[in-house]
Amino acid sequence: MVTESCVQEKSIVANLGEIKVSGDPETVLSCLGVGSCIALCMYDPEAKIAGIAHIVLPKSNDSARSRENATKYADIAIPELLQEMRRNGAVRSRLVTKIAGGSQMFKAASTNNFDTGTRNIESVRTVLAEEAIKIDGEDVGGNKGRTVRMFVGEGKVQVKSVGGPAKEI
């Protein structure tokens, strides 16, 4: 007799500008429709705490810092995610960090300074370097949207590009 696991995964979606953190091994953290945005995934393999940020724009200004959705900016979202991970028991030195997204979604963007995807990639890399956080895996650039899923129990990050197969980074 063959038995199958009936464990049902719980899904938590980080919408634009949101941060989500979980220590529930049955949970999957997701960012859907990641185009020029960046899905930033962090995982502490010892504490089994996972976090995800759906970063929309590269850099805030002074007035943006006081807004309700300030975590849509890379320079605000990354320190906030680190703080939330720590509050939930993660240890900074153990974090495994992966990024996905930063697509150039519109052809016209390649000829001017409005390529938000490239600017998001650069900003996320810069802020992570300033925070002394190493990037352990990435799937960035290109011109297709992605769905990013982070499996809390294992710390695995799966990226599925539009029209392509799912892959682990």
What's the gist of this structure?
This protein is α+β, with helices and mostly antiparallel strands.
Outline the secondary-structure elements:
Blueprint: E1 10-13, E2 19-22, E3 27-34, E4 38-44, E5 49-55, H1 74-87, E6 96-101, H2 116-130, E7 137-140, E8 146-151, E9 156-161, E10 166-168
Parallel strand pairs: 1-3, 6-7
Antiparallel strand pairs: 2-5, 3-8, 4-5, 4-6, 8-9, 9-10
How would you describe this protein?
The strands form two sheets. This protein has a five-stranded mixed β-sheet with strand order 1-3-8-9-10, with no helix packed on it. It has a five-stranded mixed β-sheet with strand order 2-5-4-6-7. It has 169 residues and is an alpha+beta fold. The chain has one domain: 60s Ribosomal Protein L30, Chain: A (2-Layer Sandwich). The radius of gyration is 16 Å and the shape is globular. A hairpin with a 4-residue loop joins strand 8 and strand 9.
Strand content: 25-35%
- Name the average pLDDT: 91
Largest sheet report? 5 strands, mixed
Number of domains: 1
Q: How many distinct beta strands?
A: 10
